[in-house]
Amino acid sequence: MSAARKLPVIDELSGFFWTSGADGRLRILRCGPCSHWQHPPQPRCAKCHSADLAPQPVSGRGRVVSFTVNYQSWQKDVAALFIFAVIELAEQAELYVFSNLTCAPEAARSDMAVEVIFEQQEDVWIPLFQPLGADHA
Predict the structure, then answer these.
(1) Is 61 exposed, middle or buried (0-12, 13-18, 19+ CB in 10 A)?
(2) Which segments within 1-107 are labelled E, that is strand?
(3) 23 lies in some domain
(4) Is residue 52 in some structural domain?
(5) How many whole angstroms separate alpha carbon 23 and alpha carbon 33?
(6) 7 pLDDT exceeds 50?
(7) pLDDT in tens, 42-94
(8) Apex CA 13: angle with CA 8 and CA 15, to 5°?
(9) Is residue 112 part of a domain?
(10) Pick from 119, 118, 114: which is nearest to 130 by CA?
(11) To 10 degrees, the CA torsion angle through 102, 104, 109, 114?
């Protein structure tokens, strides 16, 4: 999938998420005191309220909780067909990443095992997900 995208602003709180794919690893904030994973990035832990959070690598594996297939072209330079999905990461229940699936729409299904891949655009590495074990060119 190589569609034109509006790129995120790289800021102090979430910059690590958008640039960590440079080494092929997905990183999510993790709380030091209670080990709770937290996404999207926030300055305090949602579980224990500690400010001791740091980006940590995750496996990049998860499962599709829900998805929708977009068939409508909403912007001139954006491909009409894409799959937007809710991915629950393997590290923790209810640790969700919202992203695109790179498979054909007819192959997408809820509860499908997936793994992260990255699409680089400028200095941003966008995490996308493909079916676990799929070849990605």
Answers:
(1) middle
(2) 27-31, 37-38, 53-57, 61-70, 82-89, 96-101
(3) yes
(4) yes
(5) 27
(6) yes
(7) 999 999 999 999 999 999 999 999 999 988 777 777 667 889 999 999 999 99
(8) 45
(9) yes
(10) 114
(11) -30
Instruction: Give which of 107, 70, 113 is closest to 88, Cα–Cα.
Output: 113
Q: How far is residue 12 CA from its own chain's centroid?
A: 18
Number of domains in the chain: 1
Q: Who's near 10: CB < 8 A, 6+ residues apart?
A: 18, 19, 123, 124
Q: Which domain holds residue 111?
A: 15-131
In a domain, 2, yes or no: no
CA 60 to chain centre: 9
Cα separation, 19 vs 120, in Å, equals 9
Q: Any residues with CB less than 8 A from the CB of 38 and at least 6 apart, and which?
A: 28, 29, 30, 31, 45, 46, 47, 53, 95
Pair of tokens at residue 42: 């926030």
pTM of the model as a whole: 0.89
Residue 55 burial (10 A CB sphere; 0-12, 13-18, 19+) = middle
User: HSE of 31 in the Cβ direction (CA atoms, 13 Å)?
Assistant: 18
What burial letters (b/e) apply to 78-106, b meaning 16+ CB within 10 Å? eeeebbebbbbbbbbeebbbebbbbbeee
